[in-house]
Every structure is written in structure tokens, then in C-alpha cells.
Design brief:
The chain has about 230 residues and is mostly helical. Helix content is about 80%, strand content about 0%.
Length: about 230
């Protein structure tokens, strides 16, 4: 029977979506909730909420873009360093290869054979050193842009969900109740599917995401009420 391995290969996308969605669900909700006790118009809350969502999309997306660029630049810098070391001190680099395989229990003879074979192709040699000496995988060159878009869009979608409570009600107090219910439901559903995709227990993952989201929202709510 054919064995099929199931591994998650889109962890970067999941991470970015979690960052954007979790912040999008909590921060606009906390801002709107804080304003609910200070103003008597849903229109003001909706306007402020949309302004915050737009600003949050830009700020979070830019943060993701800069993080992606930094990761790529760091990898390229280390890649150049390894190429230089392979050219200038090959004996030292071969010893490092042997040390890596020594940690796996290979005999000195096997270490020497592998190191000699690996050194015949400098590109593969450098790639090996990047992975096993430095623990670095080649990042997607489009990672920065993809990260910015994923975080920004996730934040936008997440922010609209709690804000919609004020769109379909007539008073801030009613909007706050609907928004709180929507936020809790969305956090739970989001946490459930995130845990299911990442191979974690769905129910405990959903409860954990919901609790963390509510704690973050409560902290932001308290600050918003103090400011408002």
C-alpha cells in the first residue's frame, strides 16, 4: 500500500494569516467598544473603525513586507559568506561537514567520504552548509509582497467582522453586544480551523485562540475607554 505523508508546507501563509486575522478581530473591536461608552452615534464608531482598519492594514502589511525583505537579505548575506568561505578556506569547511555527520554517529571514514563527495559541487556544498550548519532555508523571493498582502487582507477582513455589529444596529450599546458576540464566534471558528490545518487539537486550539483574543481585546478596550 502506498504511504502518503501529510505535512504542512504553507506555514508562512498560515502565520501571516493568523497575525493579520487575530489583530483585525481584536483591535477594531476594542476601539469600537471603547467608543461605545463615549459617543451616541454608530456612524461615528463606524467611521473611526474603518479609519483604524485602513491604517492597520497599511501598518501591518508594511511590517510584513519589511520582515520578508529582512529575511531575504539575511539569507543572501549568509549565502555570500558561505560561498566565500568555501573558496578561501575549503579545508575548514570540510571539517565542519564532518562535524555535522559526526553528530549523527557516522564513522570518521564515512564522514570523510561524504565530505569529499559533497565538495565536488560547490553550490550543493554551500546549500548543505546553509541548511545544516546555519539552519537557514532559502526564502521565497516573493515572500515580502505575499506576506504584506496576506497580513493586510486578513486584517481588513478580520476588522470588518466586529465592526459590522454597529452597521446593523441603531445604538452603540446594541452594536457593542452584537459586535462582542460576533468577535467571540469568529475567534472560536478561526482558532478551530487554524488548529485543524496546523495539525493541533481543534477544540483546545479554538478555546486558546478565543481566550488570547479576548484578553488582547480587553486590554485594548480598557485603554480605549481611558483615552475616550
Amino acid at each position: 500500500m502506498k504511504h502518503t505523508e501529510q505535512h504542512l508546507k504553507s506555514s508562512d501563509f498560515i502565520t501571516d494569516m493568523v497575525i493579520g486575522m487575530s489583530d483585525g478581530l481584536t483591535v477594531p473591536f476594542a476601539l469600537a467598544a471603547g467608543l461605545s461608552g463615549a459617543v451616541n452615534s454608530n456612524t461615528i464608531i463606524i467611521t473611526a473603525g474603518i479609519a483604524e482598519i485602513v491604517a492597520g492594514c497599511i501598518a501591518m502589511g508594511l511590517g510584513g513586507f519589511l520582515a520578508g525583505k529582512t529575511e531575504l537579505e539575511h539569507y543572501q548575506s549568509e549565502l555570500k559568506r558561505e560561498h566565500d568561505e568555501v573558496e578561501s578556506v575549503p579545508d575548514k569547511e570540510m571539517e565542519e561537514v564532518k562535524e555535522i555527520f559526526a553528530e549523527y554517529g557516522l564513522s570518521p571514514e564515512a564522514q570523510n567520504i561524504i565530505a569529499q563527495e559533497l565538495s565536488k559541487d560547490k553550490n550543493k556544498w554551500v546549500d548543505f552548509m546553509m541548511k545544516f550548519e546555519l539552519g537557514l532555508e532559502a526564502p521565497n523571493p516573493n515572500r515580502a509582497l505575499q506576506s504584506a498582502l496576506t497580513i493586510g487582507i486578513s486584517y481588513f477582513v478580520g476588522g470588518l467582522l466586529p465592526l459590522s455589529g454597529y452597521i446593523f444596529t441603531s445604538t452603540p450599546q446594541q452594536g457593542l453586544v452584537v459586535s462582542a458576540i460576533l468577535t467571540i464566534i469568529c475567534l472560536f471558528v478561526f482558532g478551530y480551523f487554524k488548529s485543524k490545518v496546523t495539525g493541533q487539537p481543534p477544540m483546545s486550539g479554538a478555546l486558546k485562540v478565543t481566550l488570547i483574543g479576548l484578553l488582547a481585546a480587553s486590554a485594548a478596550f480598557g485603554i480605549a475607554r481611558l483615552v475616550a
